[in-house]
């Protein structure tokens, strides 16, 4: 592991009082407590128009540079229609192998309802297609409105799961990568 691994979180929520952002902050605080440097990329603050492969618009270069410095990346999203948010999809479309190959990725989602798991499955597929290594411990927070009191999680078990994710992205920041998976070999769009 590097002396000080660098953990970047991508917040796929634009809401001002985002539960996703609050949960990512808890995970990043744990990563920082474990010796990592951290960077929360709040996608509200970047100009990222819908992805067009012919136009490297807005803050795409800044996004790629910040993600590219990471040893580990946390992907956080609210659940929309059983999947992850469009703003996170756009951010991921601007990135590719240069940013994610051989990078550790942790996954977190929050939902208003009670079954947010498919968004984690979808993000796992995206990360694998970019040859990232996905941490086995993933966090889903259903019924998010009832989970938080201010910036803190009400239930100790929820807080422990989120903190564990922050711990794992530090522990596995430099895990030996697996050989490329079939999905990545077919993912020609992921290269710039």
Automatic annotation (TrEMBL):
One term of GO molecular function: oxidoreductase activity
GO cellular component: cytosol
UniProt xrefs under Pfam families: FMN_red (PF03358)
InterPro entries: Flavoprotein-like_sf, FMN_Rdtase-like_dom, NAD(P)H-dep_reductase
All residue ranges annotated as the NADPH-dependent FMN reductase-like domain in the record: 6-144
Family, as annotated: Belongs to the SsuE family. Isf subfamily.
Name of the molecule in the record: NAD(P)H-dependent oxidoreductase
Species whose genome carries this gene: Halosimplex rubrum
Organism ancestry: Archaea, Methanobacteriati, Methanobacteriota, Stenosarchaea group, Halobacteria
